[in-house]
Each structure stands twice: as C-alpha cells, then as structure tokens.
C-alpha cells in the first residue's frame, strides 16, 4: 500500500479527491485501469485566491488523488502527492479494450419514484444547502445485492459534507513547460537522472500530462511496450528492488508516486496547486539494466478565462479509502444533491461513469414534483463506458438534482454530469447506424454457428477496416438476434435469445464496451419458441431502444417499449398471417428519424417496407428490385452515411455479401462487401429462422419403444455432426442403439445436395420423400439431391449403430458455384469451362441450379499450334474442384474469328457425349453438331472423330462446346482447322523450296519397310549433299558436334522453351554460342551417322518434348505455287494423277457435317481440291451439298493396272491405316477394362481376357509411356496384318487391306477367321463387306456406339478408300 498522506490543511476547505489503486475485486488484476470520466472541481487550498464561481465552470482535465484514511481528514500537510491521472482521450482508452467486470450483475429495480426520502436542510439543519455546490450524505449498509434494494432512508446519515462547485477549471492550450524524463540502459544509477520542473507559482492551479514508451522486463514479455498501469505487489512485481515504472516527486518532498507500467496511446494526467516549489520526475527502475524507456511531461497553467456553461458535474472519487468520517470504506450508500434551473420544452442529458451503481431524480422546489430520470443501478467499474439518460420537465423553475449511488466493495467513484442538449442530440435508436467502434460508420457483427465465435468487422462503407473477436460467447442454444444501445452509453449492446427446446424463452442483453462485454442483464422471459426477436428501434421516440417481435406460428407482431433493459409496455402491431411474410430488418429508410420495418416474402423474395410513424404504420411501399432466394437479408444499416438505411445481403450458398444502397423504397446502387465463403459464419441481424433439431435416442437398433433420452440442438446450416466414437449419447448403450432427428427447415427454390457419412445405417426424409435409404450395419458415405420449390420442409433422419465406432454427419447444402476463371477479358483467348452436376439420367441439365464451378482450361491455341483446346485427359479423376469423377457435364466456350464460306475441320475426342455451336457477337447462333441448339448430344467421339462445318457469316463468335461424362475415364480433346486457307508458315524452311522432298514424316512410320511401325521423331527432307541449310528461326547455337553414331548435328535454342535440331550434316557453318537469324547458314546436307542417303533430319522441341515440325513449317511448297496446281487432269478420266499420286473415282454417300473441302482434304490431302470434286459431280455451289447424296470422290490407286489389285500377301499396314486404328482405339496409359470388360492398355492392347484382377505384368500395373504404347500398337497391328495376309485369298488394294487390319486388330484373328465376312470376301463378294462389318457392333451383349461408328468408317475405307478421321 502506498504511504498515506493527508491533502487538507483546513477542515473547511472542500475538494474532490480519489485513490489511485482500483479494487482487485472489481477488475481483473492484469487489466487494472480506468477510462476517462468527466472533468471535476479540483482542490484549492486556503492560500488560494477566492475563485469567482461564475467564472469557474470550465471543463477541467480529470485527476485522481489519494490521501490518508479519509479524504475529509482534517490533518492536512502541504506535501500532498499526486499519484495517478487518467487519459484525456476517451477514444484511445476505449480502443484498448478492457476485461469484463467480475462483480454481480443486475437490473434497474422498481424504485418508488413518488416519495423518496431525502436529506435536505429541513431534515438535517447542520447542512448548508449551498447553491451551485454539491452536498453529499452517506449511510453505511451491509447489503449483499444493492441492485435489488429499491429505496434508502437518508434522514439520519452518518456523514454529510460539502464537495465544492458544480463546475471545473480550464487550462491554457500551450504547455507552460515540457520535460523529457529519460532512462536508458547502462547510463545512470537507479532512479537517475531526475528532471526538475520550474518553480510552480503558489496558489495557481496546474494540469500535468505524461506520456511515453517503456520497454518492460524482457523476461516478463519480450518487446513489451506499455504505458501506465498500477504497480503494486501483484504478479507483475517479481523484482527484489520493487517494480519499474514512471515516478514523480511532487513538490520535492522525497516521496515517490508510482504511475506504473505504460500502456500504448495513453496520456495520464493530474492536477496540483502550486506552492512556490518544483516537481521532480524520474524513472525508478527496479531492474535497471533490463529496462529502458522515456516519457514526456507537459505542464499547463490554469487559464484566466473560465467557462460560464450550466453543465453540472460531480466527481466524487474516493478510491479504496473512507469517503468521509464515520463512513465505511466499502458497503455504503451516497446521496448527492445540488440546485439548478431547468426549462420546460428543453431536453437534458445525465451521464454517469461510476463505481458502483447510480440513479437520478430531479425535484421541483416550488411544487415538490419528482421526476425519475434513470439509473445504472448495478455493480460496475470505472473502466466501463459512461451511461446516458434523457429527460425533460413540464415546468420551468428551480430544481434540486439528486444522485444516489452505492459502493459494494473496492474502489468507489461517482462521476455524473447533467447538461442541456438540443432535440436532435437525442440518441438515434432507429437502427440507422450500428457503430461499434465509434467512428460514425456502420459496422457488422458476425457469429460462427458451429463454435459460437463472434467477430466484429469495423467498416468504412463496403470496405472492411479490420476485424476483432468478441472474447466471450454463449453456448449454441443462445442466438444473437439484435443490437442496440439499451443503456445509452454510446455502445451497442447485443440481445440474445435462448431457443433450446427443453428450456425455452430466456432473453439476455450483453451491455458492451466496444467489443468487450461489461455486464449481462436478464430480461423478461418469453417461453413460446414461435416468438422471434426480429429487430430493434426507437418506435415510441423516447430516446430508448425498443425490441420488435414476430410470432411465426400466429403471425402476430409486438413492440416492447423499453426503459434501459426493462420492458415498460407493449404495443401490438397489425397481424400478418401469411407466414412467408418475414420481418428481415428494421431501420430508417426514408430519413425521418423514425424506425421502419423491412419485410420479405420467403417464397417469392418480394421486399416491402412499412414506413412507421412511431408505433403506427403510415404507409407500405414495395421495393421493385429483387435478388433470388439464394440471398437472404442479413441486416440493415446506413452503409454510405446518407442518413437512410441500406439493405445488407448474404448468400450462404456462395459466401457472397453485398449491400443495396437505398433511397426510401428505391434501390439507388450497390456496395460490395468482402465475401465470407464459410457458411457457418452469419451476420448478426439476419432474422432467418435457425433450424432446431429435436433428437430421440432408443436403446435398440430399431427405433422401437419409448425414447430413453431426448435432446435438442441448433445449427444455422441445418446440419448434424454427431461423432460419439466408442461412446454413445447419455444413458444409451455404446452399441445397438438408434436415433431419430426431426426439424423444419426453410429451403429456397433450387437443388440441394444431401451429404451423409454414417457409421452405421441411415435414412433421410425431406417433405416425406425418402431421399436416402441406407439402413445397413456398415459405415458409408452417401449423397443425393432434393429439389425445393421454396418454403418450409419437415426433415427426418433415422440412424442406427450396430457395433464399434458410432457417428452421423449430415449436411444439406445448396450448390455453391465458384468462379476461378480469372479476368473476364480472358475469354478472348482462353476456355471458360463451367462444370455441372448430372444424375446420369437423360441429357444433363446445364443451368444455375446444377452449377458446380467455373475454371480456366487454358488458352485456345493448343501446344501444337492449332486452334482448339489442349487434351483434357482427366481419366478417372475429378476435372475441377468439387466436381465428381463420374456423372458431370461441362460447358466451355471461348472466342474465335470465322470467315463466311470457309470450311473448318473439327477433330474431336470426347468421352462421353458432346455438342457444339457458335454464336456471333451481337448476332445469331448456328449449329456445329447436329441440332446442338436443340439440345441434342452425340456420343460417337469416344476415339477420335473428324467433321467439318462452314461458317455462315464472318465475324467474332463465341465458340461453345458441351460434354458429359457417365463413368470411367473422361477426356476432351478438340482442334479446329480452317481448310479453305492453309495455315501460314510459323517459321522458315531450313531448306530452300524446290531443293528437297519429304521422305519420312513425323510420327508412326514403317521406317524399314518391314511392317513394324516406329515413332519417327522428326521429319526427313531428302536433298543433294552440300545443299545449304539455314536456321528455321533466330536463336542461339547450343550444340555443334556428333552423336554416338557419328551423325553431325546442330542444336539451336529459340527461347520460350523452343529448340530445333539439324542432323546428318556434312559440314558445319556455325559454332556453339553463335547468334543466328532465320537466313543464317548453319551447315550443309549430308549423310553422316545412321543414314540411308543424303537428307536433313529436322526436329522441333517444345519444353523438352518433340513436336511435329509440320505444325510450325509448311514444307514442300514452292514459291508462287500450291499443292493443287499439280492436278493437271481431266475430271472425266477414270484414273488420274493429283499431287504426284494416282487416284481413281469411287462412289461416296455424303454424311451430315461433310463439306467438299473436308472431303478433298481427306481424299486428296488438299482442301483446295474441292472445286475439282465439284466439277466432276456438276455441283454449281460447293457450299450446298446434302447428306444422303451419292457423289464421285477420289480414291488412292495403288497399282498402275486397276484390273489387277495388289494381292494381300504383299501388303503391309500403311501409315494412314495405322493412324486410323490409333484414333479409334484411343490412348490410355493405365490399365482399364474395355467396353467388353477385358483388360486393356495403350492403343487397345489386350492384356488378357476378363476384368483387371491383379495378375497383369508389372510394367502395365505401373502404367506405360506413350512411346511404349506406340510400340505395342505397331506390334499388334503387325499381328493383325499377318492374320489378314494369312486368311484373305483375294486381291486387295491398300485401303481394303487397312480396313480389314483395323477390324482384326479390334476383334482378333479368331473372329475374322470364323466370320461370314471372310467367307463372302474370299468368294469375291467385295460389296458385301461393309454390311458384314456393320454386324460386329456388340460388346457385353449391348450395342456400343463407338463400334457402330468404327464399323461404318471401316466400310467407307474398304469401299471408297477414305480414311475418315485422320489428317
């Protein structure tokens, strides 16, 4: 305890005083501090010059003083010590946040306002009732709960004193003196240096402020920076020499006054009367070598000018000492009174910040009429915010203003202010602005309905400035339902309602200080759970917050008019029996300072506002704007500070938040708020009804008999999470039990997904429809869907536990579409793909109710340089977040420029269905696949399908494609090529046009003419030795040398992951490190290394992978010529040359999607040959051909004598034939079961008959590379070719041979050998082959669409020589 000193030298001298040390019973010892209270009348000694009362009514800075035994002790010395002062900035103090009061909480009692017992000059003649001064009387009590005592008798007080003037002092704005008190490590002995003030003039009042920083003991809290807290013998004081902190030596008396450890942003103050001496300041560091810091002292002199306002202030701060002779230190009641003039028609405000309770009255001296003002009559501390009450009087006259206050224990202080205010200064409780951090802007309160956490967002319009957690929270049966300032302390309080089914109807108000709960007050209980608190407002315009209720069973609506935290009376509003009509907010929408009511129809989403005149509905207006029912109204508030309430929305499905800026009932704009994707977080003020689950538990697996235990719980999402492990619900056996859960939940229109994880069985009903039925004795994870048309639905879940672990996790969620596409402008060159859920029945429904999410599938220029989409080979995995591995659909689109009349080839692989169309920007759509716009999906691109379309007009189009996946592997691979105009060369030819010929292309090739196909990794250009070789593109030479076989080659790096290689050179013309251009000579053609003759082997590498050089360079094109120029023949000839090859005419039936340019590309290798085919068939308009027409088309002729076709025994599978097989088989690098159920890998390589069983070779179990797959394809094709050679006895041309090899590759030698096809073919019935082929379309006993397409195209190849689908 500090040394006790008196502060009086004249027992007639009155002053306000208080103790520095707050009660450890009132405050958490780790947070001992006070917030600022009102200014007070400070001490003045007998030596002072008398002060003119009328000039001494300023607003002085606050201060606290301590003294010996009693502040009214007559023993006075001149050596008074000032110990501790408070902050002059209340917002700084509030920003710190304080721990909650640990004392009792209570409510304002029902006080007898008609006949209180007063101390007056009549009842106590010894008291001089001095005008404009405070008189205080005390009685001792030993009540255990002062809050419950209505009235005290002050007719025989134990002490009555005069406490001085009603008003305080003011000081000069510029400091009289500024000092710096510095303590730095290792600079001086403990307690040094001291800093001395100037001499303070005797009789003059001074105001002293101190602030600074201090780094406390490092072993306490590293880098702890603080600024003033009391240091006594508590847990912080662990050093033998006493605590470190800020000290002052007032008036050089040698006694140290501890100010204590600092806390940030505090300015501490005290006031003294000078006596001609100085004040010393220093740092007394108990552990000097570990501490360092500094503080600044500013000394202000009393101003000669004083205010003349009529504000009345009482600052009776007694600390922990006896407040007056004969008065107990604890457990006393105080009554203070003074006189003032009050005027009828004016408004007055009383503010109190006390320790403990206070209540207030005014008494008309002429009439003895008593007006009860209000109270904060409860155990409380000075750290809590000030409380305000408002009143007016009916008559102008002189009044006595009475304050009653009590102290329960610990420090005591009574700080009260009465002042006149303007009418517009009454608090606005309309709900216009819910400002928690006092910056004048609407803030948002959140609660997590899983763990109960409550967080505050401080807002600046739609921008979140910061977030802070409210440290206390109630269990999940308690719901925060509204916010308002019920005790008028300028802090928003939180209303809670208890919805537990077995013990319903409790209501509480948390009295708050910023984000800290300072007290909890119970208010009147309403047991009927159908009553919901749906808003607050000042409906009767009395300056107090009221509570609005709605009954969701009867449709009744009631206002509780409140006085502080008590219901004063109730007002019944118009009944609304349509229970879909829901009150979703209150506020002031038209800016008339009156609370209005916002309604929303839960079935339609329609919004209406009841504009109120107090408690009377004056008009109703409909809000024309609307959001879909995925959005709920989460609250109201003036988000843009225009004096009118706005509407805050939250989408629990997506986590989106937004605000409608309102002007009355008209939406004037939008204000976006940061999204919160986690659905368990909800905005306090959302009046949506929270589902309450009722649980029944049975001691058997069959839900039989009477429940042994019942329970209730809530979850804002309507979900259930029960994880008992090896335990069970109360009083239930750990095994062999069952449970039934019921609730009623409002579901907006749309599709909901039910997810279940249950150990063991479970059944789910929604709206009496059995959605999931898994009544089994085993754990499982299940999901299904429910479609809501909007409204309330009964939900029932039944569960049973057999043995072992017990758990039930149920979730019902609306689809939560996400958008990860990125920049919307990216649609110009990227694929925007949205995935949808599909139930596997019929065509997928692609709409918002099935949408899962949107992603970017990459650019629309493929890695091979073609326009389209890179292969999306999802296999058996998920194609995007939250998308199932099976039964999903995709809609992707991007932008493309098309030219009218041009023919475009589509090369597609889609597993399973697909459709395509294009839509011109600001124009019309057109089908790319058959009836795509009509919704038709095709299912014939499991392998690879090629088809063409003609653009109807020129312009920029949105190119749309949709696909769906039903099961197994999923893939989508798309390229689109303009066949009308050959694509321009990307790079330059390495050899001059006309100086070479292509001798071997990239890909699978029979390099040795032995029927074995190998993967050729570049392109071979035959040319004379010594032919000049130039770089194909500018770059840097990275290698010049030979390979292991002596082949000379050069590598050039072109940047961006691209590289070229030039092999078999005879000479070099560059060195490593040279920088080259596309016309730089790098060497000459030769035949070094493994080579059969002079040629250039040319390769293109991209990011370490070899690419087809023909995707980058147009080879074998002479300047000024085109491929089609070689067609110097008559269309009437039966055999003709075109492009250096011999052809004959054959019949072909046009199919849907065909174009002449596409047919020319497939048959002649030149899309520009379409005019040649049109001339042959007398087609005047090449763009106008019809499916089903039979026309002549070119067929490659493989023998100069058409009457003597090549005998099959001398044929081998052509490159085109091998590619034909590969595109039908498709590539899968991991084991899979083919449509017939047999184990397969690669390009349809049969591993063994029957499904995958683990007996497969190890190399296949691990998956194979593409190179290995190509090798297996070549081997299997060679085997099939050998079977055709062995079994077919008639002559075949190359196309016929390739068609039969494809058939045999697919079905095996045995099926060919036993087939009618072989028999009829060997009998010379060539025309019967397509029909016989078409019969082999079954797999597993069912027709497979992929086989139908393959047999059709094998028939076309056999009859017409057209390799459909390759190019």
What does this 3D model show about the protein?
It contains eleven helices and 82 strands. The strands form 19 sheets. Strands 63, 66, 67, 68, 69, 70, 71, 72, 73 and 74 form a ten-stranded antiparallel beta sheet that branches. A seven-stranded mixed beta sheet has the order 52-54-53-56-61-58-59, with no helix packed on it. The chain is mostly beta strands. Residues 1-129, 184-192, 215-266, 284-291, 1117-1133 and 1198-1209 have low confidence and may be disordered.
Helices, by number, come to: 11
- Which class best fits the helix and strand makeup? mainly beta
Distance between the termini: 98 Å
Helical proportion?
A: under 10%
Q: Detail the poorly predicted runs.
A: 1-129, 184-192, 215-266, 284-291, 1117-1133, 1198-1209
Strands, count: 82
Q: What share of the residues does DSSP label as strand, in percent? A: 35-45%
The Rg value, from CA coordinates, equals 46 Å
Shape category: elongated
Q: For the report, how would you describe the main beta sheet?
A: 10 strands, antiparallel
Q: What value does the average pLDDT take?
A: 74
Notable characteristics:
single chain; 1367 residues; mainly beta; 10-stranded antiparallel β-sheet; 7-stranded mixed β-sheet; 40% strand; disordered N terminus
How do the helices and strands line up, and which of them pair or pack?
Elements: E1 64-65, E2 82-84, H1 90-96, E3 133-140, E4 159-165, E5 177-183, E6 195-196, E7 205-215, E8 225-226, E9 245-249, E10 256-260, E11 268-273, E12 280-284, E13 292-301, E14 312-319, E15 332-342, E16 347-355, E17 358-364, E18 370-376, E19 387-391, E20 397-407, E21 412-421, E22 444-448, E23 454-460, E24 463-470, E25 478-484, E26 493-498, E27 507-513, E28 516-523, E29 531-537, E30 546-551, E31 557-563, E32 566-572, E33 581-587, E34 596-601, E35 607-613, E36 616-623, E37 631-637, E38 646-651, E39 656-663, E40 666-673, E41 681-683, E42 692-698, E43 709-714, E44 720-725, E45 737-747, E46 750-759, E47 762-766, E48 769-774, E49 780-788, E50 791-801, E51 806-814, E52 818-819, E53 830-837, E54 851-859, E55 867-875, E56 888-898, E57 903-911, E58 913-920, E59 925-927, E60 945-950, E61 955-965, E62 970-978, E63 997-1000, E64 1003-1005, E65 1014-1016, E66 1019-1022, E67 1028-1030, E68 1035-1042, E69 1048-1055, E70 1058-1068, E71 1075-1076, E72 1081-1085, E73 1095-1102, E74 1105-1107, E75 1135-1138, E76 1141-1149, H2 1156-1164, H3 1170-1176, E77 1190-1196, ...
Parallel strand pairs: 52-54
Antiparallel strand pairs: 1-2, 3-4, 3-15, 5-13, 6-12, 7-8, 7-11, 7-13, 9-10, 9-12, 14-21, 15-20, 16-19, 16-21, 17-18, 17-20, 22-23, 22-41, 23-24, 25-26, 26-27, 27-28, 29-30, 30-31, 31-32, 33-34, 34-35, 35-36, 37-38, 38-39, 39-40, 42-43, 42-45, 44-51, 45-50, 46-49, 46-51, 47-48, 47-50, 53-54, ...
Helix pairs in contact: 2-3, 4-7, 6-7, 7-11
